[in-house]
Each structure stands twice: as C-alpha cells, then as structure tokens.
Write a structure and sequence with these properties.
214 residues, mainly alpha, 8 helices
C-alpha cells in the first residue's frame, strides 16, 4: 500500500493529485502545440475545481499562475499572462510592525486609557464629571467581563486614579457606580442597555455622554 506521505509533494493541495499529475504530464509532450492545447484544457478543469466568476480577469490570471506553480516555471507553453517571477515567489513579505504599546492594566484595554486622557484634558464641569463616571462604569463592566467576579466601587476609583495619574478622583461618597446583572459577554456588547438606574443617576443632567430615556 502506498501512502500519501510517500508520494510527491502537492504544490497546491486544493486541486488534488490528479491535476498535479496532468500538469507534469504536459511537460513531457513533444510539441508546443500539444502542450498549449493540453494546458488550456487543464485550466478549464482547474476552473471547475475552483469555482469563481469565470469572466473575471484576475481569476483566469490566478489559474494560470497556479498552473505554472504546479507544472514548473520552466514549462514551455504560451500563456495569455506573464509567468510568475521566481524572485517574487521567493521574496519574503515585509515584517508588519507589532504594536508595542504598554497597557498598564490589561483587562481595561488601551482605548479606555485614551478615553481617560480625553477626560483629563477637559475643563471641570458637569460634562467632564459625566464622562468620568461613564468611564468608571465601563471599567467596572470590563473587570467583571474578564475576571468573572465582583469588584468594589472603591477599587475601580483607585484604578481610575492610577490610570489618570491622580487627575481624576472619584469616591463612593459622591458617586455610586451602576450594578450589572446578566451574562458578562452580553453586557460588554451593549453596556448602556444593561445599566440599572439608581437614585443617584436619575437627576443627573443629560449631555452628549448620556442618552435620553425614550
């Protein structure tokens, strides 16, 4: 019994071994006319195995590129498209820069830190206070989503103070954070819908950070 691991390596496994065998058989044909005819027929078979809009120029070009990769770049056939370059195939892609930002408290994320910096730069007033309280509520939600446990409001205020370098100070005496119930993942998907109104939030002024109840 012959195993696939003992057979010749498939260049593009999606087309199967029979296509690879036919492509290599074309190399042995004596005349260029025979090779051209066989290559065109094999391209049609490859198009059936790889169904996409047949009138798309890029699709036909891709099929011919795959044919040359399977049969070999040195095969002598007439193609409507230029052969792939060996230099291009061997060229390694450029390394993508990986973000090296340092997230101070990872379960809060980098975007929350940017929100805190935005709040720090605002002038004192109801709008800034509302944004700070919203940030604190979102921090509490994020903590519950990632840690699956309850955290005291005072711990959230301490984390907010730390992330803002002491420029945003909230306390449990003046601010009561929302109480979240339900699945943490569902809460994170739409935190506003799951905020429970409490007595301290009913009389807060509406602003661009708080949606009016409809």
């Amino acid at each position: 019994m012959e195993y696939n691991t003992q057979r010749e390596h498939l260049v593009i496994s999606e087309y199967g071994r029979n296509v690879h065998n036919m492509a290599r058989q074309i190399r042995t044909m004596p005349t260029r006319e025979e090779r051209n005819q066989a290559a065109s027929s094999l391209i049609e078979i490859m198009a059936i195995l790889n169904p996409q809009p047949k009138d798309v120029i890029e699709h036909k070009h891709k099929l011919w590129d795959h044919f040359f990769l399977i049969a070999g770049l040195d095969i002598e056939v007439d193609s409507p498209y230029p052969k792939p370059s060996a230099e291009v195939l061997e060229r390694r892609p450029e390394r993508l820069p990986y973000p090296a930002t340092n997230i101070k408290i990872r379960h809060y994320g980098k975007i929350l830190e940017q929100m805190i910096q935005e709040a720090v730069g605002m002038e004192e007033g109801p709008e800034r206070q509302a944004l700070c309280e919203y940030i604190a509520n979102f921090m509490k939600l994020s903590y519950r989503n990632w840690n699956k446990s309850v955290i005291n409001d005072e711990d959230i205020f301490q984390d907010l103070k730390k992330l803002s370098q002491g420029r945003i100070i909230l306390s449990s005496e003046s601010t009561v954070l929302e109480h979240f119930t339900g699945n943490p993942a569902a809460l994170a998907a739409n935190p506003r819908r799951n905020f429970k109104n409490n007595s301290n939030n009913k009389n807060k002024p509406q602003n661009r950070f708080h949606r009016k109840n409809r």
